[in-house]
Automatic annotation (TrEMBL):
<keyword id="KW-0111">Calcium/phospholipid-binding</keyword>
<dbReference type="InterPro" id="IPR018502">
    <property type="entry name" value="Annexin_repeat"/>
</dbReference>
<feature type="compositionally biased region" description="Low complexity">
    <location>
        <begin position="92"/>
        <end position="109"/>
    </location>
</feature>
<dbReference type="GO" id="GO:0001786">
    <property type="term" value="F:phosphatidylserine binding"/>
</dbReference>
<feature type="compositionally biased region" description="Low complexity">
    <location>
        <begin position="1"/>
        <end position="20"/>
    </location>
</feature>
<keyword id="KW-0677">Repeat</keyword>
<feature type="compositionally biased region" description="Gly residues">
    <location>
        <begin position="110"/>
        <end position="125"/>
    </location>
</feature>
<dbReference type="InterPro" id="IPR018252">
    <property type="entry name" value="Annexin_repeat_CS"/>
</dbReference>
<feature type="compositionally biased region" description="Gly residues">
    <location>
        <begin position="132"/>
        <end position="146"/>
    </location>
</feature>
<feature type="compositionally biased region" description="Low complexity">
    <location>
        <begin position="147"/>
        <end position="156"/>
    </location>
</feature>
<dbReference type="Pfam" id="PF00191">
    <property type="entry name" value="Annexin"/>
</dbReference>
<dbReference type="GO" id="GO:0005634">
    <property type="term" value="C:nucleus"/>
</dbReference>
<dbReference type="GO" id="GO:0005886">
    <property type="term" value="C:plasma membrane"/>
</dbReference>
<dbReference type="GO" id="GO:0005737">
    <property type="term" value="C:cytoplasm"/>
</dbReference>
<keyword id="KW-0041">Annexin</keyword>
<dbReference type="GO" id="GO:0005509">
    <property type="term" value="F:calcium ion binding"/>
</dbReference>
<feature type="compositionally biased region" description="Gly residues">
    <location>
        <begin position="42"/>
        <end position="63"/>
    </location>
</feature>
Amino acid sequence: MSYPGYPPQSSGYPSQAGGYQSQGGGYPPQGGGYPPQAGGYLPQGGGYPPQGGGYPPQAGGGYSPQAGGYPPMGGGYPPAAGGYPPQGGVYPAPAGGFPSQAGGYQQPQPGGGFPSMPPGGGGWGAAPQGYGAPGGAPQGYPGGAAPGQQPAPNYPSGGGYGSGVPTNPQAPAIPTGYRGSIKDFPGADPLRDVEVLRKAMKGFGTDENAIIELLGSRSNKQRVPMVAAYKTTYGKDLLHDLKSELTGNFEHLVLSMMKSPAHFDASELREAIKGAGTDEACLIEILSSRSNAEIREIVKIYKAEYGKTLEDAINSDTSGHFRRLLVSLCQGNRDERENVDISLAKQDAQKLYAAGENKVGTDESQFNAILCARSKPHLRAVFQEYQQMCGRDIEKSICREMSGNVESGMVAVVKCIKNTPAYFAERLHKAMQGAGTKDRTLVRIMVSRSEIDMMDIRQVYVKTYGKSLYTHISGDTSGDYKKLLLKLCGGND
């Protein structure tokens, strides 16, 4: 038997009808991970030209107009703007344009952009002329400072609002294609897979390499059905057998890989809360990086598995503004719209300035309201506006104004929203840096991000820390544990 593929067999298993079913609780693609592309959507080339009553001759030997064909119909529909049908999912603008709404769609501008989108040129603040209002009119902050407060500082001179290029880039350009390191294995069959696992575990000793090769080459939706297939075939519990055969970090990693993403997150949250201490960083990591749908699935599973709501568990184990932050995040009600209203982003930036740097004390509730409710693309715009306005990064302001768990929690939320792969690269580096390894953090991130953005995390890691994630894992772990982690990493950089 070879791993992880299967040798051809004359009397192999019959093909399974229907193939794999998508497991409930799997992570959908992340919404709002990266800022919208500058310039708005443009109509794609290649659309059909407006019809003029009859079809024009097609290039490349298409049909020519037939003699005696039907005459043009009177009173027909006018040609659609941009050609019919719209290519690439871009619909022609309706007559009269889109109504302008706060936070909603706005009238397209000449050149294809929207006033809610930054100008072309590579992201927020990259264009020398700045954002600018339609027609070039500068946009000022609405209203003034509250009574007894200092007015908000002016924008830097020299080119008007938005002319300064930020020193901290926000999120990188949206990568194309699948960014995970683990992919579906073609033709994988859970009945054959569990036969491999059974042979690896029965008898004297355990064939760990067979387990590593198999699990390290199957996606989560291919691993999870093995639990039911094992019980169907052998009448035994696969997780129980794995526990009895494996030990230590390798055992924890293998068992983590056998759970659906939502079940795994729920178990990690439970582990972070129960017992004497609380792993606050784990709570923030999971709740700040998951989508609304993922959080709601986690909450449902947590209640079913542990007989207590996640919110009650958080309330009983945390306190103060940090508790409020976690409770807000676990509602799974963040705005997930992609469009950005720059005027609203400016207002939010001013509110954050007034709640922190521009008052005695800090209004943590205002930070909580904006960071937990606004969409991620909107918040990236807010952070950019904030830096342009007061010349200080939002993270530094939080560190100056807050302390303890609420400070670290707010900073983590900001980092995750700004650049999710960079946030996880930093978490991985801290888990392996110095004496000892935070293995639970290492396992959680490697398992949970292996099918989402591991390729992006690897790129950020080697650029930020000067050596690849693969190399750091190799030097910081050992044995079968290291081999399976490196499978999840997916390669060296």
